[in-house]
Amino acid sequence: MSGVSATAARSADSDRRNELGPRAGLPVSSPASQGCRSSVARSALTIRLTLLGNCLGSALLAVTSTAWMAYAIVVLIDCAVMIRNVIQVSLRQSGTPDELLGRVSGAHRLVTYGAIPLGAMLGGAVASAGGLRAAMVLASAIFGALAIFATCTITRARIAAIAADTTTHS
Questions:
Q1: Which residues contact 122 (CB under 8 A, 6 or more apart)?
Q2: CA–CA distance from 70 to each of 1, 57, 76 (Å)?
């Protein structure tokens, strides 16, 4: 389609939308709403896949013997953590009533940051007793258990319910 005919088609389409009034927004917004529904469905899958990626990455760290491979694995694990955190924070904030958002975020940070030194202590004790490879195998097992837990609890239906609840309140 040439530039002139494309401009004419857009102009004719614009005239039709003006005749339709507010109804014209429906076909235009429909692809956007489908994209939102699709991203909701992918959120649960992405959380599971990033946890499985951390599980696999920790297992690979247990068997790798080269420093460059260990660095590459750690970078990939960290990328998976960042992706999962963005999705989890978005879901938590969209599913929490505005008046409770500060309390829920504070409780989450308390548990998360409180668990970090406990995990470091456990990892250090396991590494002291059984070596670094044993600590990485334990980390892999923990990530595997979290992936199974996420599969049971983070479902498309729950995420869709959060998304639907969010759109009705806004």
A1: 138
A2: 52, 9, 10
Other beta carbons within 10 angstroms of residue 51's beta carbon come to 24
Distance CA 157, CA 164 (A): 10
Cα–Cα distance for residue pair 90/74, rounded to 1 Å: 24
Cα–Cα distances (Å) from 66 to 16, 34, 72, 75, in that order, read 64, 45, 10, 15
Weakest mean pLDDT among 72-81, 109-118, 145-154: 145-154
pLDDT value at residue 29: 43
Predicted local confidence at residue 69, as pLDDT = 93
Taking the model in full, what pTM does it have?
A: 0.65
The predicted pLDDT at position 20 comes to: 42
Which of 165, 154, 114, 120 lies closest to 139 in space, CA to CA?
120
Q: How far apart are CA 23 and CA 27, in angstroms?
A: 8
CB atoms within 10 A of CB 80: 21
The ranges assigned to domains in the chain are 41-169
